[in-house]
Amino acid sequence: MLRNKLLALVFAGAMAASSGYAADLIVKVRPPKLVVEKRGRAPGPGHAWQPGYHRWDGNRYVWVPGRWERVPRAHARWIAPRWQHRRDGWVFVEGHWA
Questions:
Q1: Domain assignment of residue 3, yes or no
Q2: Distance CA 10, CA 64 (A)
Q3: Which of 19, 58, 62, 66 lies in disulfide reach of 52, CB 3.0 to 4.6 Å?
Q4: d(CA 97, CA 92)
Q5: What is the dihedral of CA 57, 21, 80, 82, to 10 degrees?
Q6: Could you tell me if residue 86 is inside a domain?
Q7: Which residues neighbour 9 within 8 Å (Cβ) at sequence distance 6 or greater?
Q8: What is the dihedral of CA 52, 58, 61, 66, to 10 degrees?
Q9: In Å, what is the CA distance from 75 to each residue of 49, 72, 82, 98?
Q10: How many domains does the chain have?
Q11: Which structural domain range is residue 43 located in?
Q12: Within-domain flag for 85
């Protein structure tokens, strides 16, 4: 009985953590323009360029340089991270493979 309750509690915690209900961090300062980067050559076949982006460090924007990453599966493509404007400020949308 206790074991079943513990399993149910662990399962419920995992579901809550993966549900995406985390509060968005809203930044009142508009992000700077993207930096134009030189890519260079891919390190080999099966790599995709992930462009750089500005992240918010709590006080200011900091540039994170782009990099080559191995494509995780056939036909995957990288969706770059971006800052999305909302009524009350700017929210960061993480990059991901699609």
A1: no
A2: 35
A3: 66
A4: 16
A5: -50
A6: yes
A7: none
A8: -10
A9: 14, 9, 22, 9
A10: 1
A11: 23-97
A12: yes
- Contact at 8 Å (CB) between 84 and 23? no
CA pseudo-torsion sign 31, 64, 47, 39? positive
Lookup: tokens for 22: 């985390």
What 53-60 contacts at long range (C-beta under 8 Å, 24+ apart), as own/partner pairs, is: 53/80, 53/81, 53/82, 53/95, 54/83, 55/92, 56/25, 56/27, 56/92, 60/29
Q: Is 63 helix (H, G, I), strand (E, B) or coil?
A: strand
Helix (H) or strand (E) holding 39: none
Residues, the chain: 98
**What are 89's two structure tokens?**
């400020």
CA 47 from chain centre, in angstroms, equals: 18
Residue type at 43?
P
Within a domain: 68: yes
Q: What is the pLDDT of residues 27-62, one digit of tens each?
A: 999 999 999 999 999 999 999 999 999 999 999 999
